[in-house]
Design brief:
About 65% of the residues lie in helices and about 0% in strands. It has helices at about 1-20, 25-35, 35-50, 60-70, 80-85, 90-100.
């Protein structure tokens, strides 16, 4: 049991690192703002492919994807779901929900 929890935490770290790397979280946010689900899906699929090569965390890919889609870049207000909701991007919100995003996640910025 302890080993599985550690692997899941490791997968979450991979998801967050994926978000930071190459500004993928910002790319996801901008795609969500435009309701560009094709770009969003490419980013999510890229993470899934990267996880498949890491056997130790492959079973916990859902946790990594959730960490990625929930990631809030410090340079932006809110996560991709926050931006998609502001713009009324329903397709993007649906894809984020299907990917395990927390649609009620508040922004880190005060007043947002």
């Amino acid at each position: 049991m302890h080993k599985a929890v550690c692997r899941e935490e490791q997968a979450v770290r991979v998801g967050k690192e994926w978000a930071r790397g190459q500004n993928r979280a910002v790319q996801l946010l901008h795609a969500a703002l435009r309701d560009d689900t094709k770009t969003m899906q490419k980013l999510i699929d890229g993470l899934a492919a990267a996880l498949a090569s890491k056997k130790s965390v492959a079973k916990h890919s859902a946790a990594a994807v959730k960490a990625f889609v929930d990631f809030q870049d410090d340079r932006r207000v809110g996560n991709a779901a926050f931006g998609a909701a502001q713009e009324g991007a329903l397709k993007a919100l649906r894809l984020l929900h299907e990917s395990g995003a927390d649609l009620d996640l508040p922004s880190k910025k005060e007043g947002a």
